[in-house]
Design goal:
The chain has 184 residues and is mainly α. 79% of the residues lie in helices and 0% in strands. It has 2 domains: 114 residues, no CATH class; 56 residues, no CATH class. The chain is built from 8 helices and no strands.
């Protein structure tokens, strides 16, 4: 569990020196990529994958993208296996798997290269009220701190041997209780 949280923290945190190479608003690019991922078939998804990989190299966000993909692979694998098991359609399950991975790549590049104030300005520019345009900004600031608190809590509980190495509901309840108590 901790490697997933660490990958999410590394893959989706804004880095000051990283810049996207496209002149359009990052929010527009992200919207176009997600829309094409939803509507595309397999050859188009592979073209989108190539574009996202080139964009990651040009924006110098390869390390962050790899961390994000490593964090999302277990979730995508569960989706792949469950779709294959219930629908017996490997092509459809591979398409869903690829869409989840490409979504993580696109979102990782977006969050690493886009300043939070630019997100709010872009949302206000397209007509979203300022009260609602600040919601993603607050979420992007709070989520990394919650993830780092969760990682620290997980490591502290394991060092004190209060948390086993196996996944259980009891361990999860302990972690949630400590995180809630520390945030109050």
């Amino acid at each position: 569990m901790s490697f997933i949280l660490k990958g999410i923290y590394e893959g989706f945190t804004y880095r000051k020196g990283k810049k996207a190479f496209h002149p359009l608003t990052s929010l527009v690019i992200l919207s176009i990529q997600f829309l094409s991922m939803i509507l595309a078939d397999m050859p188009m998804l592979l073209c989108i994958a190539a574009i996202l990989i080139v964009e990651a190299f040009l924006a110098r966000t390869v390390r962050e993208n790899v961390a994000a993909v490593k964090a999302v692979v277990p979730i995508a694998s569960i989706a792949f296996l469950s779709i294959t098991f219930f629908y017996m359609n490997i092509q459809h399950s591979f398409t869903v798997f690829l869409r989840i991975i490409l979504g993580a790549l696109a979102f990782s590049t977006f969050t690493v290269t886009t300043n939070l104030s630019d997100i709010a300005r872009s949302l206000e520019r397209i007509g979203v009220p300022p009260r609602f345009s600040q919601i993603p900004v607050v979420a992007f600031r709070v989520i990394p701190s919650v993830i780092s608190d969760t990682l620290n809590t997980h490591l502290a509980l394991r060092l004190r041997r209060e948390l086993g190495t196996r996944f259980s509901i009891k361990n999860m309840i302990k972690m949630v209780a400590v995180i809630v108590a520390s945030s109050l």
